[in-house]
Specification:
Shape: elongated
Bound molecules: guanosine-5'-diphosphate, manganese (II) ion
Helix content: 25-40%
Oligomer: single chain
Number of helices: 12
Length: 390
């Protein structure tokens, strides 16, 4: 879950990282009022989940009220790489002597947290890594011990921070590590981490991603999700407690069990199709649950055909079939005549397929194996695609 800059800064402040006080607003009038209250000069910053806002005209300094108004008018509604600006962050402008870079993330290959630091801040870190890799310090942290102040001093020193701010940079790194750890973040990045002419070390920007699966441990952070930019079907699924991930294709997928759903995506791709979503219906055969899942899948207009891949274990296939029949009778396949391929295998699969056949549901095709089901659904989607464009 990616946070907007100002939300990231809230978490920074919670752990003692120096940030400028400011205000998040959504209208020009509120922006001007906030700027007047904060005191000039201020910086007017677009709040979107994409980097490079400065270059795109989404970060502007204002010396007085008329400039604040002018910038707020220009930046609100601005399209930055496909993200429309709906929120502005107004903060008191900082004087900058130097721009550094700092981040903490999980190095999956090394299976360890990693702190990165560079004196080449304010530019994209990928560029630094490519053009002057010697200017980027990568330091692995013992997850059980955490980042000590001594280690942080060493990182700042190795990285070439100015001698008089080594202590300040080390404090910032320790605090950033604490943000990453205590907030269950997957990434905590400051670019730029600035040194002011008064030699104060401060986070001028914040890029924080939180682990959505750990969110239940952080009631304070639950309101932070940027629902504006979230896929609306994913949001609905989350509210319903359903595991749904939107994908780019046109074949709706439902299975019971995350592993089975993932292999279903693979088999459909192998058969030449493109999955439209991941949806794990979990255990159980409840008609209400099936109906909810079908509605989620069909809420995506791109879906041309749907594959249900059910493996009966403890949940018996005949029970699942009854759930499907009840659900389909209620929905009528969404009234869109979208074809469904249902693969039932496992406990009582013969009875399950018999029940489906007897029900004579229009647009529902039974299959026994995964490959057979995948080929069928890909062919049905292709046929509909051709029909739609003809
Ligand atoms: P990004 O472009 O999306 O990474 O947005 P940043 O928040 O990093 O801002 C981009 C650049 O604007 C920074 O690297 C700074 O050079 C500049 N900037 C941002 N805030 C201030 C400020 O308070 N004072 C000054 N002088 N420059 C700022
Ligand atoms: Mn930045």
């Amino acid at each position: 879950m990616d946070l907007l800059e100002y939300q990231g800064k809230q978490l920074f402040a919670r752990h003692g990282l120096e940030v400028s006080a400011g205000k998040a607003v959504t209208t020009v009038e509120d922006a001007v009022a906030a700027a007047n209250e904060i005191g000039y000069p201020v910086v007017v910053k677009a709040q979107v989940l994409v980097g490079g806002r400065g270059k795109a005209g989404g970060v502007k300094l204002a010396a007085d009220e008329s400039e604040a108004r002018e910038h707020a008018e220009k930046i609100l509604g601005l399209d930055i790489k496909g993200h429309i600006v709906r929120t502005l962050w107004i903060e008191h402008a900082s004087d900058i002597a130097t721009e550094y870079y700092a981040s903490v993330l999980l190095d999956r290959q090394a299976k360890q947290p990693m702190v990165m630091f560079s004196v080449e801040g304010g530019i994209e870190i990928e560029q630094v890594a490519e053009e002057s890799p010697d200017k980027l310090v990568r330091h692995h942290v013992d997850a059980l011990k955490g980042l000590s102040r001594e280690e942080a001093v060493e990182i700042a020193t190795t990285g070439g921070a100015d001698a008089d701010v080594i202590g300040g940079v080390a404090d910032a790194l320790v605090a950033l590590y604490e943000v990453w750890l205590k907030e269950d973040a997957t990434l905590a990045e400051i670019n730029p981490l600035i040194v002011t002419p008064e030699r104060q070390v401060k986070a001028l920007d914040a890029k924080v991603s939180l682990d959505g699966n750990a969110l239940y441990r952080h009631p304070d952070n639950q309101g932070l999700s940027d629902s504006e930019n979230e896929d609306p079907i994913e949001r609905r699924a989350k509210e319903q407690g359903v595991q749904y991930v939107a994908l780019d294709g046109d074949i709706g997928i439902l299975g019971n069990g995350a592993g089975l759903v993932m292999s279903t995506l693979d088999v459909v791709a192998q058969a030449g199709g493109e999955p439209a979503n991941f949806l794990d219906a979990g255990g159980g055969s409840d008609a209400g649950k099936v109906k909810q899942a079908v509605e989620l899948i069909l809420a995506n207009d791109k879906v041309k055909a749907v594959l249900f891949n059910i493996f009966g274990g403890i949940t018996r296939c005949d029970e699942v079939a009854k759930g499907l029949i009840a659900a389909f009778e209620e929905i009528g396949a969404g009234g869109k005549a979208i074809p469904f391929v249902v693969r039932l295998d496992g406990t009582n699969d013969v009875q399950g397929r018999e029940l489906l056949q007897q029900a004579q549901l229009p647009n529902v095709h039974a299959a026994r194996t995964m490959n057979e089901a995948a080929e069928k659904v890909v062919a049905l989607a292709a046929a509909r695609g051709a029909g739609a464009t003809a």
